[in-house]
Design goal:
Layout: H1 3-24, H2 30-48, H3 52-59, H4 65-114
Length: 115
C-alpha cells in the first residue's frame, strides 16, 4: 500500500471532524458540510482503491479515472470560488450599510453641535 493510500484518508477524517465541529459551532451550513464530506470520502475511496476512479469515470462516459478526478476537483473549486464571491459581495454590502449609517449619524450630531 502506498503512502498516499494511508495519508489521504487520515487527512480526510481530520477534515471531516473539523467540518462537523464548525457546523456544530454554526460557522458552516449543513449543505456545505455535506458537500465537503462527500468530496473527502470520494478522495479517500480513490486513494485506497485507485482503480475505483476508472469505474466511476466509465459511469459518466469518461475514459480515464484521472480525468474524472480532475473534473471533480474542478467542480469543487468552481463551487468554492462562487461561494467566496457571494461572501465577499455580502460583506461589501454590509460595509456600505455601516458606512452610510455612521455617516448619517455623524451628520446629525454635527448639526446639533452647530445649532
Amino acid at each position: 500500500m502506498l503512502f498516499y493510500s494511508i495519508l489521504f484518508p487520515i487527512i480526510s477524517l481530520i477534515a471531516i471532524i473539523w467540518l462537523l465541529w464548525r457546523y456544530l459551532n454554526e460557522k458552516d451550513s449543513l449543505i456545505t458540510v455535506i458537500l465537503w464530506d462527500v468530496f473527502l470520502i470520494i478522495v479517500s475511496v480513490f486513494a485506497i482503491f485507485p482503480h475505483a476512479s476508472t469505474t466511476f469515470a466509465k459511469l459518466f462516459g469518461i475514459t480515464r479515472g484521472l480525468d474524472f478526478i480532475i473534473i471533480i476537483v474542478f467542480a469543487v473549486l468552481v463551487y468554492t470560488i462562487f461561494k467566496l464571491y457571494y461572501k465577499i459581495d455580502k460583506l461589501e454590502d454590509n460595509i456600505n450599510k455601516i458606512v452610510k449609517e455612521v455617516a448619517l449619524s455623524n451628520e446629525i450630531s454635527l448639526k446639533d453641535k452647530e445649532d
